[in-house]
Write a structure and sequence with these properties.
With 184 residues, the chain is of the alpha+beta class. It contains 4 helices and 6 strands.
C-alpha cells in the first residue's frame, strides 16, 4: 500500500433554529441619492431572491448603496483632476477626493462581506435551507485518505461525520463511510 495523501474538510451548517427574518423585499429609502437608488434597484431583487435580503436588512443595503454613490462621485472628480495636489504651503498632498474614494471602498467592502456581494462572501453565508447539508445541525467533517493498494488500484476512503443532535432512532453524531477503488 502506497499513501498518496489525506485531508480533512470541515463544513459548518446553519442551525435550523436560527432566527429567520421576514421574507418581504424592502423598499428603497427615499433619502438615497439618484446613484444610490440605481444601485439599490440593481441589487435588491437578486439579493432577496438569494435569501440574503429581507426588510430587516434595509439599513445595511442602504448604507452600502450610499457608500457606492459617494465612491462613484469621488472617482468622477478624480478623473477630472490629479490624485495629488499642491497645497498653498507648497507641499504636495493627496486630493481630498482620493481619501473619500478610499474610505468609501473600505465601507463598501464591509457591507459587501455582510451582504454576500463577492464570490468568497457568498461562500461564507450560512442561510437556512441552503446547501447540500440543509437541516443538519452543527458541523460536518469529511476524513479522506487516498492510497494505492497492492494491485495498483487507487483507493479513496471517505468518512463523513455530522455533529449536532441525533435524528429519530439515532444515537450521537451521524457517520457515513465509503470506499471508491479505481484501477490506474
Amino acid at each position: 500500500m502506497h499513501l498518496l495523501g489525506s485531508y480533512v474538510a470541515t463544513v459548518e451548517v446553519a442551525s435550523p433554529d436560527m432566527p429567520v427574518a421576514p421574507k418581504a423585499l424592502p423598499r428603497c429609502p427615499p433619502h438615497l441619492t439618484d446613484v444610490a437608488r440605481k444601485e439599490w434597484r440593481r441589487l435588491a431583487k437578486p439579493l432577496h431572491d438569494m435569501g440574503v435580503l429581507s426588510v430587516t436588512d434595509r439599513a445595511a443595503l442602504a448604507a452600502y448603496c450610499q457608500s457606492w454613490a459617494r465612491w462613484v462621485e469621488a472617482e468622477e472628480h478624480l478623473q477630472k483632476g490629479p490624485p495629488l495636489i499642491k497645497a498653498p504651503s507648497g507641499y504636495v498632498q493627496q486630493s481630498p477626493w482620493l481619501g473619500i474614494a478610499n474610505k468609501q471602498l473600505e465601507i463598501m467592502g464591509r457591507f459587501m462581506a455582510e451582504l454576500g456581494l463577492s464570490p468568497s462572501a457568498r461562500a461564507r453565508l450560512r442561510l437556512p435551507g441552503a446547501g447540500p447539508q440543509a437541516g443538519v445541525d452543527g458541523v460536518t467533517v469529511q476524513f479522506v485518505t487516498l492510497y494505492e493498494d497492492a494491485d495498483g488500484n487507487r483507493v479513496r476512503d471517505l468518512k463523513v461525520q455530522s455533529g449536532g443532535e441525533a435524528g429519530p432512532g439515532e444515537e450521537g453524531p451521524r457517520s457515513i463511510a465509503c470506499r471508491e477503488t479505481k484501477h490506474l
